[in-house]
Specification:
about 325 residues, alpha+beta, L-fuculose-1-phosphate Aldolase, 8-stranded mixed beta sheet, 10 helices, about 40% helix, globular, Aldolase_II/adducin_N_sf, Aldolase-II_Adducin_sf, Aldolase_II/adducin_N, Adducin-related protein
Length: about 325
Amino acid sequence: MTLQNPRLICRAASLACRKPIAPASPTPRRSFSSEFSPHTYAPDTQYSSDHVSNLLQTSILPEFSEQEAKARIELAATYRLFSLKGWNENIYGHLTAKVHERNGSESFLINPFGLLYSEVTASSLIKVGADGAVKHPGVTNGLFGINDAGFVIHSAIHRARPDLQSVMHCHYPSAAGVSSLKQGFLELAQTSHQVGPIAYHDYQGVVVDRAEQKSLAEDMGDKNIMFLRNHGVITAGSSIGAAWYLMYQLLAATDIQSHASACALGDAQNLNMPSDRTVNKTYEVMHKKGFSGAAYGLKELSAYMRLLDKLDPSYRT
């Protein structure tokens, strides 16, 4: 009689008695409302990717004069460049350009308050009158409105300075940092020397009070750069390209100051300050002697518009 292995007998019995495992029941599908789609959902449908993208694909440039259409394209380009350079702060900040109406009055163009700078197009810019009334809502058709602080700051300067076409404002960290220093902006390096005379405006909180317009204009005076203390910076120019390139140089200069101050270990005696004569010479060459062979900012903005055209020409829409 052959004895069987007890372990094999137990294993066989275990397999014979094991019940087949029933397949898992499918997870019940939840019922979504007809208005909800995971692919297009946004906290507010009117601000969804689909809705806003459809609006921004429309061009209405033929509705405007050639002068205004050109201004819209240039200003939209600068919004895209601010985004590309990281000069914007979320949806905040504002760049404006003055345009002339057929009846001789003046208006200015500003961004819809809610678009990313990287989304701004020529046709999306909102046209505002000196009194703050919207003259043309652009293709977003009132969906976003405008930043009230943008109106207060920019309208004050445009009204006080008829020689300016464009005003730009941002909170770039190194510029906001310099705006918070008691000694203010230092003309440390060649880039710093090119920006020119600086004005200062004391901090009064978020700029939404119309009463502040008077002091804004008075503090700006005839200068094209103003530090808003503990806040940010403003640049302005007789063209959109001039205001943009002045911002380009100013922000680079504040970066230089931040680096130099760190290297100086907080001791101003370690900073090598050039003479006023040298500083003035550099400014004269850049602004009054046609160093680039063209109007200030013209070649520079044109070059960066070519870059945008390669990356994403939709700003022209």
